[in-house]
Structures are given as C-alpha cells and as structure tokens.
Amino acid sequence: MAIRNDTSPYDVVIRGGRVIDPESGLNDVRDVGLSGDRIAAVSVDGLTGRRILDARGLVVAPGFIDLHSHGQTIGERRLQALDGVTTALELEAGAAPVSVAYARAAAEGRPINYGFSASWAVLRRRVLTGEPLPGASDGPLDNLGSEDWRAPATRVQLATILGSLDRELADGALGIGVLLGYAPAIDPAEPLAVARLAAAADVPMFTHARPLVEQVPDVVVDGAEELTRLAIETGVHLHYCHINSTSTRHLDRAQSLVESARAAGAEVSTEVYPYGAGMTSIGSDYFHPEKLHILGATGTPPDVIYARTGETIATAERLRYLRAADPSGLAFIRSFDEDGASDRLASILALPQAAVASDAVPLVVDGVHSFDPSQWPLPGFVRTHPRSAGTFARTLRIIRETGVLTLAEAVAKCTLRPARILERVAPAIRRKARVQAGCDADLVVFDAERVTDTATYQYSTRPSTGFVHVIVNGEAVVSDGVLREHLLPGRPLRGRG
Predict the structure, then answer these.
(1) Are residues 155 and 30 in the same domain?
(2) Does 68 lie in the same domain as 49?
(3) pLDDT of 50 strictly over 80
(4) Within 10 A of 468 (CB to CB), how many other CB atoms are there?
(5) Which of 7, 41, 164, 364 is deepest in the core (most CB within 10 A)?
(6) Are 167 and 94 found together in one domain?
C-alpha cells in the first residue's frame, strides 16, 4: 500500500522490507529512499518520502537482469516485468544493425530496460544471400529454419562478416551473439575467427553450442569441447547459453569441461532456466524427425507441440509438413517431464556460477486472429513458452520448496551474476544489481513465501504472482501487484563502443 507525503525529502521510500544486496551481503530490514531514478539512501533509520511503499514482511532486492530474452515487444516485456525483470537483453541471437534495434525500442518505448548484442546469424545471412538487414530484435529467429545462411562461407565472405561484427560493436552492441547450434556443419575456423575478434575487442561471445557427440556422433566438433577450447585458446569471455537445455542428460560432462576451462584460467560463464522443454523454430535441425534426440527427446513426434495452434504433433509426416509450411514457426520440444522432477530442476538452478536467464521467446498468434503487441491484457489466442512469463518466479518457488539455494544466493543468480558478466562491455550495469546509494532505482519487492509462476504449456501467458512492486528507473511499472501499462520507463543498456 502506498501513502503520500508531499513535504518529504525522498520521492519514494520503501519501508521496512528485508533488503537483499548481493554485492555487500546485506540481508536485513532497512528503509530504501529513492530520488528520481536513483537509490538515494539505504538506512536502518526510518526515512520519510513523498510516497511510502510498505514492504514489511516483504523482500526488497535488485531488479532481475535477463541476459537471454528474444521477445522484445512491449507485450513481451510486460510479461517479464510481472516476473520481476527490470532489464531484458537479447544477447544469444542479437540484432543487426543494433542501431536500428535500439532506435526502434526507444521510439516505441519499453516498460523495462533493453539491449542487444551483434547478431552473427543475421550478418552472416546478409553476406551469404545479399538480402538487406531486418533491423529487428527478433530478426535471427525469423530465418533459423532456412538453409541459405548456413552454407559454407568463403574467405572473402568471412572477412566481410567479421568486419560487419566489428562495426556493430562500435555502434554499442553488448558483445557478439552466435547461434552456432543452428548451423552445426560450418567450419570450426569461423567461430574461432569470431572468438578472436571478440577477444581483441574485450567483449563477450554469447553462444548457442553445437550438439554434443552423445547427441550427434558425427557432429563436426563436440559442442561443449568447442566452446571451452575457444575460451582457452583465444582468451575470449565465452558465455555458454542455456547449458542445461543444449546438454540435456549430459549436463554433468558439459559442466565438467566448463570447470576445467575455468581452472585453466579461461573465462567461461553459463546460464540456466528451470524448465524441461525447449522452444525454437520448427524448421531448425533440432526438429528434424530423425534428430529429436538432440534435445533429449525420446525421438517420437509427440515430444513436439506446435505453438501457433497448441497441437501435439502425432506423426512424423505431420512434423515434416509443418517444417516445410512454417519453418520459422515456434514449437516446444520436451527434454524431460517436469512433473515430479523438482530435484532435477533444483540441481540445474544450483549449477556453480550460473546466471538464471529465461530464453524468453516471442509471442505467437494462432494464424486466425490479428494482434497488437501493445494490447493488454494479452488475449487468449496468444501463446509463448511459459519460461517467457515465469522463469524468475519459478526459480524462487523451487528454491523455497527444495532448499537447494538460500534466497540470497538465488537473488544473486538473477541479479549480480548476470551484471558481472557484462561489466566490462557495459560499465553502466555496475549501477544495477545492487541495493546501494547511488545505484539505479531498478528494484523488486516480493513476497518470498508466496511468489510463484502460474504460466503452463497450455496457458503460457499467465503472469507470475507475488511481485508486489517492480520499479524501473524509479517508476513502479508494477504497483501492488498490478501492471501500470501506461508506463514505459525502460532505457537502453549499450556497449562501450
């Protein structure tokens, strides 16, 4: 509940909450005073403010930072705001040109902060096909199922790709996003060249790995070995995207390689999400009827659900038809049954030094209705992966139910850990992920005993509950659990250029 006092020194005071600041280790009751878009005070003494948010019995933490979020429209960002996210970044797939992606987001407005890496896949497609760049944050996902961008690159083409990536970095990209797993047959020399470029620029390389040898015995190179070797050989900061979903039942081996690389002095970061099903374009290699096992599926078509209609695909013939008819259409692929799998999900979240990241995907319309991305609430015919709406609340629920992490440890995985992955390329993020005077007023206030996800595979856009206030740059985009849909205070996070 909010109380107003127009004569007080702070614009907003969050009163009496349990403040968790991952950097300092603070985990105690404090008042937090906000002035404009910054935290002005964190105090044991009672503060007065023009607006008082009663946080007694609640947790006050830094706003969550999502490194891996493909859905970048207003509606998709609203879902994430209701999941405690104050900064959502498109880093695995990226965008190109980033200048256009940033300009579009600024012109439309966003409820939470945003940013982009340079998209290797989009630039590679432009060089190989000669088609113009889309300039959209979701551009890479539109063409994952096509063959044209996955052909071998000549030396001249590779040099052009590298030059384009370098220019994107100069324009403020937050590193380089490499969808290597969607072009698994390319020459290993190409990602090596990209890694050398990223290392020279001192920016992260956010990478979707190729399949592991256990999944595809004749793969050009084992995905986990390749990424860790790139980090060791080039010195690049290699970010291994959603290591749990690409490694599936072989996660222990992939994590062992990561830890060995770290022990050798390499910089390898990872991320995880707590779901048993992935989602990507149905035309990609992962949905080839003979390759479903790559993501841990049993190899039978019923492991696949076509998101546009919610159809469970019953035959290989139907799967082949949809792959041809709608190659960019999104579909679920089940790696394991989540029912009764809380221990497995908990162990994923407990992976050492891993950030929590959603891999949120764009909203999908059923093909019959039209949809305005700014429409709220979202209509029932719009679908997505439940991780797009519930990753962070689900994380908090799982650690509450299993005890695999303390609340402070879980908060750090959602805030400080992702921030530190970006600190060199984006120094401005040092003002985020902290509840300290002088830092950005990006904060979440939540009920640790009740916060939970509600999105399911059938009802995938149901928002999380338990986040009482979500504050972005000093403005409460969620107030008393209700989205304030007219507010669009999100700002860009850019690379140093």
Answers:
(1) no
(2) no
(3) yes
(4) 25
(5) 364
(6) yes
3-class state of residue 419 by DSSP: helix
Percent residues over pLDDT 90 in the chain:
77
**Signed CA dihedral, 294, 300, 306, 310: sign only:** negative
CA distance linking residue 96 with residue 136, whole number of Å: 7
Residue predicted with more confidence, 35 or 138: 35
68, 151: one domain: yes
Q: What is the pLDDT of residue 390?
A: 99
- Pair 317, 221 in one domain: no
Q: Which two tokens stand for residue 440?
A: 């950005």
Q: Is 243 a residue whose pLDDT tops 60? A: yes
Burial class (CB in 10 A: 0-12, 13-18, 19+), 45: exposed
CA distance linking residue 474 with residue 493, whole number of Å: 16
Pull the structure tokens for residue 419: 């921030």
Q: In the chain, how many domains are there?
A: 3
Instruction: Answer whether 346's CB lies under 8 Å from 400's CB.
Output: no
User: Amino acid identity, residue 191?
Assistant: P
32 and 73 assigned to the same domain: no
Are 75 and 470 a contacting pair, CB within 8 Å? no
DSSP assignment of 401-418 equals: HH-SS-HHHHHHHHTHHH
Q: Is the pTM of this model over 0.90?
A: yes
Domain coverage including residue 289:
280-332
SS3 category, 297: coil
Are the C-beta atoms of 237 and 206 separated by less than 8 Å? no
More confidently predicted of 4 and 355: 355
Residue 46 lies inside a defined structural domain of this protein: yes
Q: Are 22 and 415 in contact (CB under 8 A)?
A: yes
